[in-house]
């Protein structure tokens, strides 16, 4: 069954003058609305940011016995390393996110003030959209590669692994990237994020800023400005002990801190 027309997207308006945008993509079976609780907790500390929450199209998911649900692409198998990927669906979704990015640029927000991120399937599509140059399979900046303010990948993985290194954006090594993943994730195994990190740093020469394993809880004393290298060009890879397929408390705090650093008010 082909994907349906993309559903409307949600918007969380900034509390102050709009100078930056985050485009955040939900996971399989969810919707942008499912992230409103977390985003609303961020608003006061990120008052200048508009959140754009696209909804994935409804499509038949092969791995889920063909049931129709929101998904950025078809999963042919629950083995996420299966090479039988839905290439067409993945590129279709990346083109759609290109259009959302271009819409923000047309409204006056420079690409360097835009972050693309997502959870699970949404994280995988964020990585594909933001860090590749897709030529005829891209729209606007997606053709030659976007120069974004940052990319946030929560419990995601690399799509189109056979082609990814051939599609890499010329801006990959100068883009701040945050990857967050629970070590006990039984949906998207933590090993897939480890593999993605190796692809980005060992094969594609993205600076490896940090590779930390942390508690699920947020730091009780808050962040120090000098803590870590998160938010500069390169990869910050953060793992969370005993966390499953979720955005645990520390993931949320790390995402918020990343956005403060790459999209300062």
UniProtKB/TrEMBL annotation:
- Single GO cellular component term: cytoplasm
Lineage top rank: taxon: Eukaryota
Q: What is its EC number?
A: 3.1.2.22
Pfam families according to UniProt: Abhydrolase_2
Q: Name one GO molecular function term.
A: palmitoyl-(protein) hydrolase activity
Q: Does the keyword DNA repair apply?
A: no
Family to which the UniProt record says this protein belongs: Belongs to the AB hydrolase superfamily. AB hydrolase 2 family.
Q: List, alphabetically, the Gene3D superfamilies matched.
A: alpha/beta hydrolase
Return the SUPFAM superfamilies for the record.
alpha/beta-Hydrolases
Which reaction equation describes what this protein catalyses?
Answer: S-hexadecanoyl-L-cysteinyl-[protein] + H2O = L-cysteinyl-[protein] + hexadecanoate + H(+)
Does the keyword Methyltransferase feature in the UniProt annotation? no
Q: Which UniProt keywords apply?
A: Fatty acid metabolism, Hydrolase, Lipid metabolism, Serine esterase
Please give the function described in this protein's UniProt entry: Hydrolyzes fatty acids from S-acylated cysteine residues in proteins with a strong preference for palmitoylated G-alpha proteins over other acyl substrates. Mediates the deacylation of G-alpha proteins such as GPA1 in vivo, but has weak or no activity toward palmitoylated Ras proteins. Has weak lysophospholipase activity in vitro; however such activity may not exist in vivo.
Annotated Phospholipase/carboxylesterase/thioesterase domain ranges read 11-206
Q: Name one GO biological process term.
A: fatty acid metabolic process
**What parts of the sequence cross the membrane?**
none
What name does the UniProt record give this protein?
Acyl-protein thioesterase 1
Q: Which InterPro entries match?
A: AB_hydrolase_fold, LYPA1-2/EST-like, PLipase/COase/thioEstase
């Amino acid at each position: 069954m082909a994907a349906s027309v993309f559903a409307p997207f949600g918007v969380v308006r900034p509390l102050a003058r709009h100078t930056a945008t985050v485009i955040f993509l939900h996971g399989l079976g969810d919707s942008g609305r499912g992230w409103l609780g977390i985003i609303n907790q961020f608003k006061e500390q990120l008052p200048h940011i508009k959140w754009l929450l696209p909804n994935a199209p409804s499509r038949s998911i092969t791995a889920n016995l063909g049931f129709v649900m929101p998904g950025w692409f078809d999963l042919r198998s629950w083995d996420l390393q299966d090479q039988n990927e839905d290439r067409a669906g993945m590129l279709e979704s990346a083109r759609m996110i290109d259009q959302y990015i271009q819409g923000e640029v047309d409204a006056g927000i420079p690409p360097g003030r835009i972050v693309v991120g997502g959870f699970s399937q949404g994280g995988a599509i964020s990585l594909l959209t933001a860090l590749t140059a897709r030529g005829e399979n891209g729209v606007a900046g997606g053709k030659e590669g976007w120069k974004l303010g940052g990319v946030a990948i929560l419990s995601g993985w690399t799509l189109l692994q056979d082609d990814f290194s051939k599609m890499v954006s010329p801006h990959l090594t100068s883009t701040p990237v945050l990857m967050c993943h629970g070590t006990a994730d039984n949906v998207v195994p933590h090993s897939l994020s480890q593999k993605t990190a190796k692809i980005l740093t060992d094969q594609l020469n993205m600076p490896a800023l940090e590779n930390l394993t942390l508690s699920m809880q947020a730091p009780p004393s808050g962040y120090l400005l000098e803590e870590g290298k998160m938010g500069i060009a390169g990869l910050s890879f953060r793992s969370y002990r005993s966390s499953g397929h979720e955005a645990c408390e520390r993931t949320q705090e790390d995402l918020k801190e990343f956005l403060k650093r790459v999209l300062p008010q």
